[in-house]
Design a protein that fits this description.
alpha/beta; TIM Barrel; Rossmann fold; binds ligand C2E; 15 strands; binds magnesium ion; eight-stranded mixed barrel
């Protein structure tokens, strides 16, 4: 179906707004537009297969059935079209509503503040795609403990590496190790599909050991070719339940000849909120051995200031949810700035995760965050691809990103 035949429904309790929207839509060439002032009438329309709209422009604040309630009805009716919110509510409200609708798997193209502009409307409608093209709804295959165990022991896990760069000079200072499973049938499987299982079934020590061994070997190989990179690895809290594991890590580093100073151990902030006695002791022990410690996904775990003060961390990674789009969102920018300043006060290095586009990059750099990581710089890649990527990046950087 071509865009110009899109069936659009505008729902707003104010007839004046509907007139305005209808006018703008006509200007943009959309001819199949219905306007309604009541949610009930709208639901009736949606119930008619031949009339069901492809796109709904929805007001949030309506007296009889408000926008959020309307969205609930859309969910019940398995509405597979798209939604644009058009309302007078403030930015936070609009974002909250958008998030809510998305959480129910409704496709939301975005929101517009009243009075909407023709331009803004055109841009959002331009993002419309047919339901069959919507990204598949998180129907991820889950694996059994036996499969994950076999994968670890058959060497099916592979490390990918994502560069970390200095925002001021562009220099690639390190790389984060991100594990993937090269599954013989299913292709490349991502960690959210097997780390949890490994943790639940007592396989995480084996998994981490395999990841670390390869990461250390790789780091050593890079060093030998003149590429000095700090290597980050992700630890699970379950790795920090026995002293023996700290010794394992130290032993692996010694064996491969990688200095602990060049290894950054990442632990997610949310995991730090659990019972900390044993983990704290092990983390401190690792720190004594000169491994660096990083607090990952910062901002998602509600740590208390006291906890932060007491943990011997060297690096704080601001979670991607406060980075991507923060340039255009005061709320996110405020959280970003607060995290940045906290880290600086505590004399920790700060990494912005989730730098996805040029705007994110400029924001992070201008706010004085020294290290950045994200798709804009590079996606995680196999070890073999990294040296050449670094060469190209550092060569092009001066010309384009300063
Ligand atoms: P993480 O440690 O926070 O890693 C960052 C994740 O964000 C990675 O996902 C990375 O591919 C993704 N990412 C990087 N840049 C961007 C960006 O610009 N935008 C967006 N939207 N995402 C970006 P990945 O590789 O799927 O890993 C997910 C999580 O799995 C990791 O989050 C980490 O917590 C965990 N994980 C990965 N490898 C290991 C491991 O060896 N051991 C343990 N215990 N956990 C691991
Ligand atoms: Mg990480
Ligand atoms: Mg993270």
């Amino acid at each position: 179906m071509e865009d110009f035949t899109l069936k659009i429904l505008a729902l707003d309790d104010e007839p004046f707004i509907l007139k305005l929207l209808a006018h703008m839509l006509a200007d943009l060439g959309y001819t199949r537009v219905t306007t309604l002032t009541s949610g009930h009438a709208a639901l009736e329309l949606i119930g008619q297969p031949q009339d069901a709209p492809d796109l709904i422009l929805l007001d949030l604040n309506m007296p009889e059935m408000d926008g959020l309630e309307f969205v609930r009805h859309l969910v019940e009716r398995h509405f597979d079209g798209s939604l644009i919110l058009v309302s007078g509510e403030d930015e936070r409200m609009q974002q909250a509503a958008e998030k809510l609708a998305r959480a129910h798997n409704i496709t939301v193209l975005g929101h517009l503040h009243k009075p909407a502009s023709t331009q803004g409307l055109a841009e959002l409608i331009g993002q419309w795609t047919a339901p069959s093209q919507h990204p598949p709804r998180a129907q991820k295959k889950m694996y059994g403990a036996d499969e994950v165990r076999a994968a670890i022991h058959n060497g099916e896990l592979v490390n990918y590496y994502q560069p970390k760069v200095l925002t001021a000079s562009g220099r690639v200072m390190g790389a984060e190790t991100l594990v993937r499973w090269q599954h013989p049938q299913d292709g490349l499987v991502f960690p959210d599909q097997f780390i949890g299982i490994a943790e639940q079934h007592g396989l995480i020590d084996d998994l981490t050991r395999a990841v670390l061994a390869v990461a250390f070997e790789q780091t050593k190989l890079w060093q030998e070719t003149g590429l000095a990179l700090q290597i980050s690895v992700n630890l699970s809290m379950d790795n920090l339940l026995s002293m023996a594991f700290a010794d394992t890590i130290f032993g692996l580093a010694t064996k491969t000849g990688v200095l602990p100073q060049s290894v950054m151990m990442e632990v997610t902030e949310s995991q730090l909120m659990k019972d900390l006695r044993m983990p704290l002791e092990i983390l401190t022990r690792l720190r004594l051995k000169r491994f660096q410690l990083s607090i990952d996904d910062f901002g998602t775990g509600n740590s208390s200031l006291a906890q932060l003060r007491d943990l011997p961390f060297d690096e704080l990674k601001i979670d991607q949810s406060f980075v991507h789009g923060a340039w255009n969102n005061e709320k996110l920018a405020a959280m970003f700035d607060a995290s940045l300043s906290l880290a600086k006060q505590l004399e920790m290095e700060v990494v912005a995760e989730g730098v996805e586009d040029r705007s994110d990059w400029d924001f992070v750099r201008n706010r004085g965050c020294e290290i950045a990581q994200g798709y804009f710089i590079a996606r995680p890649m196999p070890a073999a691809a990294l040296p050449e990527w670094i060469e190209n990046w550092e060569r092009d950087f001066a010309a384009t990103l300063t």
